[in-house]
């Protein structure tokens, strides 16, 4: 407190501070505006600093995967596959998809918070390539998604998960999850710019993600479902991704599956990335 | 003298706006604002909450598209040339426009890098600003742990990482204690001395009086009066005589004398020893005071002054509310 009072006193009364103020104002020369890469990296470093200062935001990528994997393996393993160990081989790829899909919504929440504080306005008055503000943040989110994936795989290995696709297969599968999640995030940034509060955003994402993740092939084989539901499950983007991830982790992946994931990702990005940028630029 | 030269050299305008309108739903938040703000000056938007100050600033700062009207910032069109405008302006919003989870130095470095500085340059620029703003001890503290005054200063520092040609300040001192407020004023004056044009909004008449070369009084989305602080005071007109009596029983006699000598309505204070009256002519005031002495009415204190900006403001907004009321009745 005393420190604050001293510094407060110093402005305006101390002429050397006054001199420094004028000097600082005089030396604020404008450099060339940064290129898209430089501004994207600046935003990415902001996101990294936020992780450093608010480490509790890493809960979603560390605790969620652990809880989800343990919960569903032991809850459904006996009932669905007869043994938890067998079920884990089937479940882990799907539960990885489900977990990462669910944590993508935090991208939208962070953006929503920025808007409600004034920093969003400051970014928008800077002479930068505006998408870099979002891409920088999304790149760091991809790091977070990778962490969640690695934690889940490591825990799975401890519980008896044995991927037949080997390290390469697993890495390739995680790559697909990251591409998909990056694309899915644009949906939440779009909603993050539309809705008024964090609460309504969480509600919307819950309403979208719950049916998408549960009514999919994450937990059960679609063949066990009524035919009218199979159609939905098989065209569900989460199923398309889960099938591909399962395939590559167990060494049976096909290029068709990869193409499916890429097409779904491209569609989501093509619709929601421009929409996000339009809303970002024209936010009231 | 230096300031005078500055205005002469830059006789073109920093902001030029005609008929700016912004409608939110049914409400016309900004309803036909015209502006002509000289380079190198401070222009103050004065008005109560909800008058349209912030909306106008957000339109001029390229953050909000106008529904009607045109504006040019340093000659650049607001709509077609917004990128060029963003290279010359900076905005300090009403709420801290910084990342409160980051430290002071991290915030300034982020802005510096987004302005185009390299990492090293960004760090030294950030430190230079923190020192100049008396925040070097708080450089490595998260901004959410700053006091209100420190927060305002780091916010303004972030706005001048590159010294802007035009700075928008939305209520820069709202909620600050008097000392922090004076510090912010010093910073604004220093910026203006270096040639920056400042457009600020305020609810405080004293702030407009202290800082602004010209003031626009904004009410219900319209500028209802515009001019220097002196012009605004003069436009409301007459001065006011305040008299404080020693004995309450003299109040009625004093009222009669003032009414006779000043030929104006006299208001009695609630404490029954004070009186106020409109007074145009100091000679007649002297006569009234002489009459007091003659009739042995003891005066403990008196003052004759031009109206304060507060009185100007209340007169103007009161009048405009009345006018609006009248026109609403007409349309009914």
Folded structure, characterized:
The complex is a heterodimer of chains A (284) and B (332). With 284 residues, chain A is mainly alpha-helical. Chain A has one domain. Helices cover 80% and strands 0% of the residues of chain A. Chain A is built from 13 helices and no strands. Helix content of chain B is 42%, strand content 26%. Chain B is an alpha/beta fold and 332 residues long. In chain B, the strands form 3 sheets. Chain B has a 6-stranded mixed beta sheet, with helices on both faces. Chain B has a 4-stranded antiparallel beta sheet with strand order 2-1-4-5. In chain B, strands 12-13-11-14 form a 4-stranded antiparallel beta sheet, covered by helices on one side. Chain B folds into 2 domains: 233 residues, P-loop containing nucleotide triphosphate hydrolases (Rossmann fold), CATH 3.40.50.300; 68 residues, Alpha-Beta Plaits (2-Layer Sandwich), CATH 3.30.70.2030. Chain B: It is found in: Cell membrane.
| Arrangement of strands in the largest sheet of chain B | 6-7-8-3-9-10
| Proportion of helical residues of chain A | over 70%
How much strand content do the residues of chain B show? 25-35%
Structurally, how many domains make up the residues of chain A?
1
Helix-strand pattern of chain B, N to C?
HEEEHEEHEHHHEHEHEEHEHEEHEH
Backbone CA Rg of chain A: 23 Å
Structural class of chain B, by secondary structure, is: alpha/beta
Mean pLDDT of chain B: 85
Number of helices of chain B: 12
Note the main attributes of this structure.
A: 284 residues; mainly alpha; 13 helices; 80% helix; elongated; disordered N terminus; B: alpha/beta; Rossmann fold; 2 domains; six-stranded mixed sheet; four-stranded antiparallel sheet; 12 helices; membrane (chain A)
